[in-house]
Amino acid sequence: MVYLVSVLRLPRLVRNHGVFYRFSSTLTSNQEKEISFADHRTAYAHLSHAEILRAWIVLKLCSFDFLLQNSLKVLETSQRVFGKGLLEKILRPTLYDQFVAGDDPQSLKETANKLKQIGVKLMILPSLEEDIGHKSDQNRYNSNVEVTLQLAEIAYQHGGPLSCLQTKITALISADLLLKIAERNRDEENHFRTISTWANYMAGGSFTPVSYLDKQENIELEMGLERLKSVGAFASGLQLRLLVDGEFTYLNRAISIAALSMAGAFNQTRPVVWNTYQCYLKDAFDKICAEFDVTRRMGVGFGAKIVRGAYLERERILSVEGNYPDPTNPSYEATSAVYDRVVQHMVEQVAALGGQRCNVIVASHNETSVLKALSKMESLGILPTDNTVVFGQIYGMASNITVKLASEGYIVYNSVPYGSLFDVLPYLSRRATENRAVLKGTRRERTLLARELRTRFLGF
């Protein structure tokens, strides 16, 4: 009880963060819209007392740098000391339930229904990926396809058309093979030629062997393209949004080839396959402009998930180890400047081309960036119900942004990890290490959670 009271006493300065943010609309004269992300009552009304307290405790733990840096080691050590059974009893009702939808269709359905009650849509995130150095395993990739199609079906069942499903290309094609392709497609014309060839195959054409790959590698590539084709066709048939996640820079060129090839095959009438743009990278603006031009050249729709990014610290280490220029922005502020520039530019493209040709998801926990996007939408006459510029946050975080946007009529998604505890937690620990800046910056949300608890228990 003493601990609970100390939590409730934490934040009396929330108003100093700014209760209201204002931006003017150019659509109507003398009209001003107010959006408050300090509205804890709206943000947490759907949560029980226990869920709010859990969120505060978990986000507080996520603010400690030592735990974030060593989360995977802590997890592995705890598993050896406590054993899987006891560790699951500790972690499932805490970290797992805070950030993960569950590990079976029923638990995913319950999460989807809980989100639907507050007007938030499901964006399923399977914890399927690999890095270079992993042994190529075609059976594993085929199994990943089956899981992805099952999740696509679930996404449609609970969200209907335009529901979102995230995927990683390295879950479907060997990362080592992708690395070789990335290294041989640095020239822009080769890049476009490969995209066109792969898109033609996925649209029903024949496979063209690649000259710099050996016979076995070409067999693996054809099998990989067939997997991409099956996932893209299934998503297109259900009218889903298939969001291809970004990964490490050494793979991203090949990942972009795969994503744009799928776009060439399946984005004929609207954006089905979307690529992800990581704005912690210095070249994010140039990259999104170049890839947008590729889709225009192919005559297909363009979809973009715009994020700050999750691999920053590893990228900096790799640049030092590899003795090449750091590809990342020097600060969070510099990343935010790139992020806002990318969002503003792409919202302009949405307005210019119309919703059937260009869609974007503003995936951000940064209130200022979200407000700038809202202001841009208003100035260009893009309505929330157009479903062309949408928003996204991680499940279990930034509810003050998510719920408020949904209550104002905006289309908002929660990225929801899915899988068993011992499959998902190592994945989440890697994401935690890579997302330290985001997780350490949850003080604002902890303040609002504590304020909500104080209101419920003490009445003020």
From TrEMBL:
Q: Which top EC class is given?
A: oxidoreductase
GO terms, biological process:
L-proline catabolic process to L-glutamate
Please give the catalytic activity noted in the UniProt record.
L-proline + a quinone = (S)-1-pyrroline-5-carboxylate + a quinol + H(+)
Q: Name one GO molecular function term.
A: FAD binding
Per the record, the domain of life is Eukaryota
What this protein needs as a cofactor is: FAD
Cellular component GO terms, alphabetically? Answer: mitochondrion
Enzyme Commission code(s) on record: 1.5.5.2
Q: Tell me the route in metabolism or biology where this protein functions.
A: Amino-acid degradation; L-proline degradation into L-glutamate; L-glutamate from L-proline: step 1/2
In what residue span(s) does the Proline dehydrogenase domain sit? Answer: 110-443
Q: Which UniProt keywords apply?
A: FAD, Flavoprotein, Oxidoreductase, Proline metabolism
- Role, per record: Converts proline to delta-1-pyrroline-5-carboxylate.
Q: Which family does it belong to?
A: Belongs to the proline oxidase family.
Q: What is this protein called?
A: Proline dehydrogenase
Give the organism, scientific name: Daphnia galeata
